[in-house]
């Protein structure tokens, strides 16, 4: 342990945050107020660089001021060695590379986290270009995570040692960067040492961004020759010969053809809709329908239904949307930005489509387990342990998705039952209204029938006393007979209506009984008990934690063994 300091800051060499060829970064603090910072301290090799190169990062950061770019606070010298230091914002959340090394992220970030990274990195790079700068070393290790006061995270670009000012029409000849993230032309010049007069522009950062985003989305690099970075010629072949639209190229064995793909791997944790290229950088509004629906803020309900149809196969005409147990029927012309806020735990429900036989849930793709080595050694235990921990976290994620699915089913069933109950109550109300109208009609009919019967009796009495010509009397008798027949038919209709009303009354009583006794809710509560049972998820979580602890133990043993061997060699 050794305490180092400058005129204003102090740090302990044990508080190492990162180390490179030309220096190291430590956690330090201000001598007077105790505020913490990141101290980037040059070593002797770093001090051997030209002054212009050493001052480049300070000068670049001094011109930048953006939420998604690490802040610069001061430049001083270490008192003992007189080596230069740069005082920067402390990013306590670690780098994206460190996060990707965590088995929980072995198959890429969760969708919401990935979206935040894309948003923040794009914003930081936009500011960089507006200031006429190129970074030239973009990679997960140079993107830091910082916790905000509200518990959320923001991502910031860091390490501007290779950055420089570059106008839109300018180019540069020098090569910087990390092999796996280099543009093919830079790789050819810097790694393969093939000289040429080609100048490079700001577009090299875009290549690095693409590789970085793929790495964060999937947990692996997009271009992987057999043997890794040692197979440099094949690496350059993959990146330089890649066809437009292909986003990955993998060589699985020596001399084998490259396997190209224009899609993300099956194990990625991004949703189907998000993986569509046209949406990647234009996400405006997210609506949760168990899965996520991405839609631009100014698009309307028709587009929303179209996107649902793409994911579910249910046409717009068959869709019934529910939100918080009520039917969701927005103004057809209202923009999607006016729709209610949704989330994974507060999503919409869609009912509709053709009847399908019950089937099991769609399985989340889990990579196969590796073949275990026949012999055990400290050199391989750590690598195998990491793969097992990665798979365990993949299983845990899959189980979590199944748990979410059962909870979504619960919400769906509850929504259907609540709406069914609401419809039943409307039916009861309609039945009562029909009964009321029937009673009124019955009273009117009774008065009408009584009047008509009396009228017929009067006519018949008069006809028996009138001695008019028989022809005229016969006509009157026919008219009286017609009135009598009409009255009788109305009485018959009344009988039929009475039977119908009795049926409606029985229907109302049945519905009222179902509503009042909540008969269907017995099944709901049984399903709720099963759906909210987290014991199976807790078991998987416990196993996953145990597997990771074993891996960390192997990793620690390997580190100590390597350190001991280096010590023995030095002796």
Describe this entry's structure for a reader.
- By secondary structure, the protein is of the alpha+beta class.
- Helices cover 48% and strands 14% of the residues.
- It contains 13 helices and 18 strands.
- The chain has a six-stranded antiparallel sheet with strand order 1-2-3-4-6-5.
- The model is unreliable at 167-175, 277-282 and 563-571 (pLDDT under 50).
- It is found in: Cytoplasm.
Distance between the termini: 22 Å
Point out poorly predicted stretches.
167-175, 277-282, 563-571
What is the approximate shape?
A: elongated
The pLDDT mean sits at: 81
> Major sheet: size, sense and barrel closure?
6 strands, antiparallel
Strand residue percentage: 5-15%
What's the gyration radius in Å?
38 Å
Strands of the widest sheet, in order across it, are 1-2-3-4-6-5
Structural class: alpha+beta
Q: Give me the count of strands.
A: 18
Helix content: 40-55%
Total helical elements: 13
EC number: 2.7.11.10
InterPro entries: IKK (IPR051180), Kinase-like_dom_sf (IPR011009), Prot_kinase_dom (IPR000719), Protein_kinase_ATP_BS (IPR017441), TBK1_ULD (IPR041087), Ubiquitin-like_domsf (IPR029071)
Main location: cytoplasm
Domain Protein kinase: 11-350
Which features characterize this protein?
571 residues, disordered C terminus, alpha+beta, 13 helices, 6-stranded antiparallel sheet, 3-stranded mixed sheet, single chain
SSE layout and pairing:
Layout: E1 3-5, E2 9-19, E3 23-30, E4 36-42, H1 44-47, H2 51-63, E5 72-77, E6 84-88, H3 96-101, H4 111-130, E7 133-134, E8 143-147, E9 153-157, E10 164-165, H5 184-190, H6 203-218, E11 223-224, H7 232-241, E12 248-250, E13 259-261, H8 277-280, E14 285-289, E15 291-295, H9 301-312, E16 320-323, E17 326-327, E18 349-351, H10 378-463, H11 470-517, H12 521-531, H13 535-570
Parallel strand pairs: 11-12
Antiparallel strand pairs: 1-2, 2-3, 3-4, 4-6, 5-6, 7-10, 8-9, 12-13, 14-15, 16-17, 16-18
Helix pairs in contact: 4-6, 10-11, 10-12, 10-13
GO molecular function, one term: ATP binding
Protein name: Dendritic cell proliferation
Pfam families: Pkinase (PF00069), TBK1_ULD (PF18396)
């Amino acid at each position: 342990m050794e305490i180092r300091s400058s005129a204003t800051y102090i740090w302990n060499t044990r508080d190492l945050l990162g180390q490179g060829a030309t220096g190291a970064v430590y956690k330090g603090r201000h001598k007077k107020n105790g505020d913490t910072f990141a101290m980037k301290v040059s070593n002797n090799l770093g001090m051997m660089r030209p002054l212009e190169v050493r001052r480049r990062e300070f000068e670049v950061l001094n011109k930048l001021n953006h939420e998604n770019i690490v802040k610069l606070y001061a430049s001083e010298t270490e008192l003992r060695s007189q080596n230069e230091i740069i005082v920067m914002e402390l990013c306590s959340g670690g780098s994206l590379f460190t996060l990707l090394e965590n088995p929980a992220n072995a198959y890429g970030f969760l969708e919401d986290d990935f979206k935040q990274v894309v948003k923040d990195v794009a914003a930081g790079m936009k500011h960089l270009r507006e200031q006429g700068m190129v970074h030239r070393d973009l990679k997960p290790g140079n993107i830091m995570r910082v916790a905000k006061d509200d518990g959320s995270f923001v991502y910031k670009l860091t390490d501007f040692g290779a950055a420089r000012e570059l106008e839109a029409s300018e180019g540069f000849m020098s090569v910087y960067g990390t092999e796996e993230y280099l543009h093919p032309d830079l790789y050819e010049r810097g790694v393969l040492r093939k000289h040429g007069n080609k100048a490079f522009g700001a577009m090299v950062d875009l290549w690095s961004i693409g590789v970085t985003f793929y790495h964060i989305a999937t947990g692996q690099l997009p271009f992987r020759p057999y043997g890794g970075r040692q197979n440099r010629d094949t690496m350059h072949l993959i990146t330089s010969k890649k066809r437009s639209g292909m986003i990955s190229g993998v060589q699985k064995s020596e001399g084998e053809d490259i396997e190209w793909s224009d899609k993300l791997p099956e194990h990625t944790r991004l949703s189907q809709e998000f993986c569509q290229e046209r949406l990647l950088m234009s996400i405006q509004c997210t609506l949760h329908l168990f899965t996520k629906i991405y839609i631009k803020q100014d698009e309307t309900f028709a587009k929303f239904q179209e996107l649902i149809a793409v994911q579910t196969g249910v046409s717009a005409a068959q869709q019934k949307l529910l939100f918080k147990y009520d039917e969701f029927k927005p103004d057809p012309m209202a923009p999607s930005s006016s729709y209610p806020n949704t989330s994974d735990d507060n999503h919409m429900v869609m009912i509709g489509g053709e009847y399908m036989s019950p089937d099991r849930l769609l399985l989340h793709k889990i990579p196969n387990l590796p073949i275990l080595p026949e012999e055990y050694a400290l050199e391989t235990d750590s690598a195998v342990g990491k793969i097992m921990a990665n798979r365990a976290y993949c299983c845990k994620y899959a189980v979590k998705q199944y748990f979410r699915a059962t909870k979504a089913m619960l919400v769906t069933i509850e929504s259907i039952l609540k709406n069914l109950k609401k419809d039943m109550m409307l039916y009861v109300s309609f039945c009562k209204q029909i009964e009321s109208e029937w009673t009124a009609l019955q009273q009117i009919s009774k008065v009408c029938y009584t009047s008509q019967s009396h009228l017929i009796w009067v006519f018949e009495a008069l006809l028996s006393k009138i001695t008019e010509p028989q022809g005229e009397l016969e006509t009157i008798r026919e008219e009286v007979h017609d009135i009598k027949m009409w009255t009788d038919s109305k009485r018959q209709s009344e009988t039929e209506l009475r039977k119908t009303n009795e049926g409606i009354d029985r229907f109302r009583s049945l519905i009222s009984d179902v509503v009042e006794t909540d008969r269907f809710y017995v099944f709901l509560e049984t399903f709720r008990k099963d759906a909210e049972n987290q014991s199976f998820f807790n078991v998987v979580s416990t196993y996953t934690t145990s597997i990771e602890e074993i891996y960390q133990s192997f990793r620690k043993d390997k580190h100590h063994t390597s350190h001991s061997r280096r010590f023995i060699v030095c002796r």
